[in-house]
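Researcher: We're reviewing a set of sequences before deciding which ones to prioritize for further study. For each one, I'd like a predicted 3D structure that I can look through quickly. This is Aminopeptidase N-like N-terminal domain-containing protein. If possible, include the structure in C-alpha cell form so it fits the rest of the review sheet.
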Amino acid sequence: MYAVLLILLSGWPRDHSIEQSALNHSYAADAQLFEDTALAYDVTNYRLAFDVEIPAETLSAETEISMTMLEAADSLTLDFSGFTIEDVEVDDKSRAFSRQDSFLIVSLDGIQPEGTNLTCKVYYHGKPQPASGGFGGGLYIDPDPDSVTYACNAPWGAKHWFPCQDNPADKATMEMIVTVPEGYEVISNGKLDSADRSGSHWTFHWIENHPIATYLIVFAASGNYALTEDTAIIDGQPLPLYHWVLVPDSTDVTPRLMRVKEMVEYFSELFYPYPFLDQKYAHVAAPVGGGDGESDLYPYRYASKLGRLGRYRCSRAFTLVVGQCDYLRTSKTHVAERGIRHLLRGVVDGACGRP
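Model: Here's the predicted structure for Aminopeptidase N-like N-terminal domain-containing protein, in C-alpha cell form for your review sheet.
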C-alpha cells in the first residue's frame, strides 16, 4: 500500500501557478467555476466594525463594502438577515432601502453603469439571530467570559451578522475592527494591525490582504485564551504560527500543537508553499465541529469536547492538508484532489505518529 501511495503522490501536480491563481482576485476566473451564478457587482473589500457588548449579547456595527458594478443597475441587493438598520449610505449619501426575506435592497437613485465603483455603508444594531442548524449559522455571542464568542459562516452564514454578497464566487479583502469588554482577546483573519488594550473596552484591528470568500470571514473572542507562538521556515521565509487555546486545555493541547511546525513545512515541500506566508498560520479555539482551510485562521473545537485529545492532534493536520489542497479546486485537477483525500489521511496519520 505504501508503495502505491508514494507513486501516486509523486505524480501530484507541483505547479505553483495553481496556488497563485487561487489567491489572485478575478471575477472572470470565478465565473468559470460558478457558471450558474450571475453577480451584478464585484465586491473588492469589506471593512467591518463591531462594538460587541458580550454580557448583553448585542452589537452595534458599521459595514463598509467597496464594489464595482458588473452590469448597469438602479439598486443593490445585499444578503442580510436580522438586526435593526439605522441608515444606509452609498458614496456618503443616505439612500432609501427595503428588506425582503434575507435581502437588503438599496436604491442607487438612478442607473449606475457597468464599471462604476461604489462604496456602500450599512449602520445597524441588535442581537444576532444565528441560522438554525448550528454549524455555519453566523455569529454566536456567549456572555460567559471563560467561553468563546465566535463566528462560523460556512457555507451561507455571513449574512446573519453583516451585509454582504454571500456567494463564494466573489472574494474580497477585508478589515475587521472589533471592540469588546476589557480582558477579551479578539482573533481574526490576516494580520493584527493594532490592539488598544486600554480602558473598559479593548479594540482589535485585523487586516486580511488576500481575497477570501465571505464564509471564511470570522473572528473569535474570549477572556480565557492562552497563546503559544512558533515559527516555521517555508522556502527560506519565516512563517509565524499562533495557537490560541483555552486555558484549561493548554497543558494537554499545546505540546501537540508544537508538531504543527514540521507539518506545515512538510506539506509545503510535498505540494507547494503555504499560501499565506506574509500573514500567519493560526489555530483558535471555538465550539465548532470543524474548520475551513482556505484562509490563515483555523478554528478547532474545544479539546475537552473531543473525547480523546489524540483526535485533535491528527484532525488538525488533516485540515492543513485539505486546506492547501482546496486551492486546487480552481484548476481542472479538482477531481484528483477529491480522490486522493483518503490517501492523504495515511500521510497525516504518519505525520501524527499514529500507527
